[in-house]
């Protein structure tokens, strides 16, 4: 009789465990599309069976574990970080590129082309009042074009700074969420829901900044930015902040990322959206707009053109009768570092102030005007910037930005494909397969039926034995 009771007890335990296993399977099915969730499994172990010693055997639960693979998570986070970087670069480069249209009839290139044309027309009729007024009008258009380009560049910087601030804010929010999940896990143990939320938050965080994740034995994580700065350690957050520092009126403000301690961690943020934003802000944009160390290509171009035109005009004569009258500069700007934003025609400049005459014996009536007309394609090093004509220098800026934008678009597409592949691999190794879970349910159904049959047999045998002893 004791053997029958032991069998009944072991069978009941088996049914209880099957009930738990079905619960795990149902939870897998329910969370198949939940971000961060991976397949859970009920680990079972055999209970010792020895009929002679009265050990009935059976099964017991040894734990509930998930199927998460660290290396697949790292692959996903790395791909997501690259995607965030590429998208940030693509957006900002496209915005900045619009300030330098490749079409030679538009923007700064178009305005300069118009000025060269008016210089050429003036050189053919140096005493023409109309030609002189047309030169002044074209010069004002050049100033307006440079100011417009400088304004668009400034807008790109301000937008980048706003996006950097928003990214830092999101990083701190996600760090706080992760620290809260760490606290719950450390104090109450982990479960499928906490684990899913934790890894979903880590994946989103990797899209904002490059992180390293150290998994602890208790299920909590330590998150490092750039492999060094401890953004999250247990339930402690060491957040980031973006600091914009004005550099006066002559240079754009600087920006850096620092930890709560005041440590500068800008160099650590090389990936994710924040890394892409900073590389644009401190690299590509600074090359164009300038920074505390150099004036930038746009300002260099504006100042160089203005200085050369002013030099030629000031060195010429506006009239020689009855006495020589020195020419006046055409352009003015506040400083080289802000030349594009402040470039304009000198206030009060009149057509009669333009010096077409080159001094000499005898004076050359349109000598200066001809030199000005030749500026567009001059081989004279004085009429060039770093060995390039003004048109070629502008074209190099526009072409470089276009190339960078195209590369960013290509890299973003590659990163998106890499994310899809990494997630697909993770799904294959760790995700929930509805077909697999359905097969498990059929297995559990058969096990239930078999255990129910055992209970029925034990019940029949017990009844028979009772009848025999009556």
Structure characterization notes:
This protein has 470 residues and is of the alpha+beta class. The protein folds into 3 domains: 2-67 and 453-468, no CATH class; 73-102 and 155-294 and 411-422, no CATH class; 112-149 and 296-398. Helices cover 59% and strands 13% of the residues. Strand 2 and strand 3 form a beta hairpin. Helix 1 runs antiparallel to helix 11 (434-468). The longest helix has 60 residues, at 129-188. The protein is rod-shaped. The two termini are 15 Å apart. The mean pLDDT is 88.
Write the layout of secondary structure elements.
Elements: H1 2-30, E1 40-46, E2 49-50, E3 55-56, E4 59-66, H2 70-97, H3 107-124, H4 129-188, H5 192-208, E5 211-215, E6 221-225, E7 229-233, E8 236-237, E9 240-247, E10 251-259, H6 272-289, H7 297-314, E11 317-319, E12 325-326, E13 331-332, H8 339-342, E14 344-345, H9 367-373, H10 390-430, H11 434-468
Antiparallel strand pairs: 1-4, 2-3, 5-6, 6-7, 7-8, 9-10, 11-12, 13-14
Helix pairs in contact: 1-11, 2-5, 2-6, 2-10, 3-4, 3-9, 4-5, 4-6, 7-10
Give the tags:
4-stranded antiparallel beta sheet; 11 helices; two-stranded antiparallel ribbon; 3 domains; 59% helix; 470 residues; alpha+beta; rod-shaped; single chain
Terminal residue distance? 15 Å
The level of helicity is 55-70%
- Beta-strand fraction estimate: 5-15%
Order of helices and strands: HEEEEHHHHEEEEEEHHEEEHEHHH
- Please state the average pLDDT score: 88
Largest sheet: 4 strands, antiparallel
Number of domains: 3
Low-confidence stretches: none
How many strand units?
Answer: 14
Q: Mind telling me the C-alpha Rg?
A: 38 Å
Q: How would you classify the helix and strand content by structural class?
A: alpha+beta
Strand order in the largest sheet: 5-6-7-8
* Number of helical stretches of at least 4 residues: 11
